[in-house]
Give the backbone structure.
Amino acid sequence: MRSAVSPAKAYSLPTSHSEQEENKRHNSEQVHLPVLRDEVVRGLQVQSGKFYIDATIGLGGHAAAILEASRPEGVLLGIDQDEEALRIASKRLSRYAHRYELVHANFAQLREIASARHIKGCDGILVDLGVSSLQLDSAQRGFSFQEDGPLDMRMDRELPLTADEIVNYYSEKDLANLIFQFGEEPFSRRIAKAIVKARPLHGTKDLAAVIARTVHPSGHHRIHPATKTFQALRIHVNDELNRLSQFLQFATHLLVSGGRILVISFHSLEDRIVKQAFRALSSACICPPGLPECVCGHQKILRLVTRKPITPTPAEVERNPRSRSARLRIAEKL
Ligand SMILES: C[S@@+](CC[C@H](N)C(=O)[O-])C[C@H]1O[C@@H](n2cnc3c(N)ncnc32)[C@H](O)[C@@H]1O
């Protein structure tokens, strides 16, 4: 039995932000373009009467497209760990009232979310990973090196760890390992050493400047030299890779036969996790090579719909440069 999807929780916009932050939020909302929107709607095979989960609802761009394409009776459960995003999504989706519910949670908690609502199956699940335009464009959230903000980077503001603690208190060795592992940054040791020497660091611009001076003293660079370090800090603060692996295990079990899971990732670490999980779940045997007979007892539960990821067209990249590294993988439940 599926849950009846209740009217969305009414999120009200906070009043404590400065006018400038408020303007930026509305701007983000307006300029936010969901990545690979048409490919997502087609990939999910959206129809009326079906039940979808958008596990990273963000500003509600994909959710609006799914609710629109599933008129008049499709229903959607939206999850996000960012309460601010949920408030905006709730406003954006208000015209679909009674066809969706929004939940403030980490998608790694999908099992508990489903169980609390007696959800036994789902026709399609979407995950659009990474940072939303809202998070990137609000300096106060600390994700951007273009504008100064606190060293925060928490998608869920209730999380205990901030980037400040890592940057100002981790040992040089731990810092270097983290920047290497989650940023795939070849200059990780040099950067960690420079950060430790420059402590205390107070904001994102401060940190970005230290990295830029260390990696590209000449000031000439194609992508900002802090990009990989910022990615590493964000992944660690939000424990992104572990959460994704936990989520994929349960999400694929929740799908009904013929139901599809779609994942949009933005860097190779995420994409590798998705690719490996889909490959394992679509293989009948995961024994190490060379065994005379199968001993794993593994069951194939998925069919790969995309062998190679779908990427945005040049026209989409031109319209929305943030889509340029997006990769969409799709699998179907057997
Ligand atoms: C790229 S945005 C999604 C944009 C959305 N598809 C849209 O069309 O507006 C990613 C969102 O996922 C959320 N997010 C990332 N990891 C999450 C997790 N583990 N659990 C819940 N939400 C997560 C972020 O807070 C962010 O709002």
Remarks:
- The chain has a mean pLDDT of 90.
- Residues 32, 34, 56, 58-62, 79-82, 85, 106-108, 128, 130, 132, 155, 243 surround S-adenosylmethionine (CB under 6 Å).
